[in-house]
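Quarterly update from the structural biology core.
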Amino acid sequence: MAGIYVHIPFCKQACHYCNFHFSTSIRLKNGFLQALLNEIILQKNFLTNEVVETIYFGGGTPSLLSADEIIKILKAFCSNYAVAAEAEITLEANPDDISFEKLIAWKQAGINRLSIGVQSFFEEDLRWMNRAHDALQAQESIELAYEAGFDNISIDLIFGTPTLPDSNWKNNVEKAIALNVKHLSCYSLTVEPKTPLEKLIHKKKLDGINTEDQARQFLLLIEWLSEAGYEQYETSNYSLPGMRSKHNSSYWQGKKYLGVGPSAHSFDGNSRQWNIANNALYIQSLQQNIVPFEREILTPTQKLNEWIMTSLRTKEGLQFDTQAKQVDYRIVELLKKKSARYQQQNLLTTTENSLILTNQGKLYADGIAAGLFFEEAEIRDDACAAGF
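Predicted structure, tokenized:
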């Protein structure tokens, strides 16, 4: 089973914190769509013998697409790939793009899951982030989606901004629960290099980030959502029973996926590749039937470290013996040895078959993963890294 990610590189306006590839001009939109349809055909052998169980429209702002444009893209996938009849098909949407008429059209086009970029239900947060929607649209977009017949709805929320006291953060979470949102992706605000946010903070036009506030709000979030019946199945993702994102889960499970569109990444189990992050050059290359990407072949050690990084973020943690994978006992012993200091600090728990982050450990997930990584010299023969 495999997934497909579609990158739509256009937005109405730039959010201060965003470092994804996008353009606020849609001048090249028609040329992009033709190039995208061509790439879909040219890449049809990337997932040979794989059934596509998820398609995810991300960006950028995919909700800028019309229903007809979505239909063309989905038809291209169905004509060139083995797309499962019950495939999860997600569209990222901004609240200001959502109307009842659009929702009905998207549903008829084949979209069966929405990921709505709410970020906050408070006006001051949205202005600070430079979001295009307002607080009322944030709530109404969810209500309209349910009214239009969408049941599988996820929303994004951001915490740890200078404008968000704990009381407002609790209100955001409680509102999402009251609206019966089945899935939440909740992110601690990161000040990414070369973003408007970094520049504004550097010029002291906006207040900076307090990491202690972020850590506290993260732990409060885990507590509040657990009490409401949500499972934290990955560090940033929470769902009611049976409502995990199949697409996002495939990344953490190491499944194959194809990414199409400018800047999109792909993984075939042995290599990673990424398309050029330039709309004009992407279009020009596809006009010549050339997919503009770079590729990296992964060593067994790199694949092992990626498994550590992605698995450690999940509820199940690093599992040494599953139906999909049996980790060499030498790797297991080394991992348990490396993890001892984190267990002593109550950041990791261990069983005979797994290593799992504690709630406190989730605050340091990336650092702990890096501490468990292997150097090439540590794996003296390829058999030791078998399965990666």
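Residues 2-251 form a domain with the TIM Barrel fold (CATH 3.20.20.70).
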